[in-house]
Amino acid sequence: MNGTIHILGPQRGAPLLIDIIHDQYPQAKIAVISAGWRHEESQLRSLARDLQRPLELLPLYQWFDDLGRTEPELSNEHALRQKRIKSYKDTYRLKLQYGMEFLQAIRKKQDISPELFMEDVLSAQEDIQKIDMEAMERIGRIRDSFPNLVQPWLHPSAQPFHEEIKETLDACDVLLITGGHVAILRNRMFFFGCQKLLQQFLKQGKTIIAWSAGAMSLCEQIILYYDDPPDGSGNAEVLDTGMGLLPHVLFFPHAQQRLRITDTKRMRDLAQRFSQYQCITLEKETHLTFDQDGWSYHNNVQKCSLDGLLINLHEEES
């Protein structure tokens, strides 16, 4: 990979993106994917004003809706696939709930007799990891059962949009991927074949700047989390695969709002459950980059350690 990926925390009302563009890419032509904003996808006027240049919007959300009207068969097949995945997710959450309850029960026993119940804690953690892995495999099998949707961007009606994305990226130097609804953003990018196009974009030595949901979508996996939701159990869950451009890392935007970061036991279980990844929180001033030399940590980068503490990552640790 010859290009650079900038990862930022939430950017609403924050000047970090503006500073990066003005300081490092003053003459760059910029494309934007904002499908996570859904119906507000095209509302880029204030962003263009702040960046002091026109922006090339890739309206994936609108294009998908347009295809739904012109290609009802393709749209209905996609809707059926998503319905089956959503239905299976109910079973996944049920298994996960049982697994998490058992882990918490064993944790209480371990508090009384640490050595005696350590093996049971490890076994309970492994069971939860297996539930996550089975969920990913099951979702993959559901997708495979819809062969017409394996590469939907090759469908005659979708292919022109795919080509437009390629042409726009070829003409631009920087791609912004905004936050918003991460599942919709992820699904629209996969539907239009963005995974390989983003890989090619980076191979050309170009730059991606992604924040919040946009950052999450570039990882190998996407995790949903909210420790105190209005409804539901509050268990973190695997959403799906991501673009796979950023290895061995998971991002947690708005962690201070959505995670009980001072509950070290709960944070410990989260980090240990996803121990094959670095669990990095993304807050307003967070900035880190990934390129062919690996990670660089520029500002306010914290990861959750295996003992549940948030640790500052510095440039020398990259």
User: Low-confidence segments, ≥5 residues, pLDDT <50?
Assistant: none
Total of domains: 2
- The first-to-last residue Cα distance is 17 Å
Q: Which CATH first-tier class of the largest domain would you pick?
A: Alpha Beta
Helix share bin: 40-55%
Strand content: 15-25%
What's the order of the H and E elements?
A: EHEHEHHHHEHHEHEEEHHEEEEE
Principal-axes geometry comes out as globular
Mean pLDDT: 95
Largest sheet: 7 strands, mixed
- The whole-angstrom Rg is 20 Å
CATH architecture of the largest domain: 3-Layer(aba) Sandwich
Q: Tell me the strand order in the biggest sheet.
A: 3-2-4-5-1-10-11
Could you give a quick summary of the protein structure above?
By secondary structure, the protein is of the alpha/beta class. 47% of the residues lie in helices and 18% in strands.
List keywords for this structure.
318 residues, alpha/beta, Rossmann fold, single chain, 11 helices, 13 strands, 4-stranded mixed sheet
Structural overview:
This protein has 318 residues and is an alpha/beta fold. The chain has helices at residues 16-24, 45-51, 60-70, 72-112, 114-144, 159-171, 182-191, 194-203, 213-217, 255-258, 264-273; strands at 4-8, 30-33, 55-57, 174-177, 207-211, 221-224, 237-241, 249-253, 278-282, 287-291, 294-299, 302-304, 310-312. It has two domains: 4-67 and 174-317, 3-Layer(aba) Sandwich (Rossmann fold), CATH 3.40.50.880; 72-149. It is 47% helix and 18% strand. The strands form three sheets. The protein has a seven-stranded mixed β-sheet. Strands 8-9-12-13 form a four-stranded mixed β-sheet. Strands 6-7 form a two-stranded antiparallel sheet. α4 (72-112) runs antiparallel to α5 (114-144) and α6 packs parallel to α8. The chain is globular. It starts with a strand and ends in a 6-residue tail after the last strand. The model has no long low-confidence stretch (mean pLDDT 95).
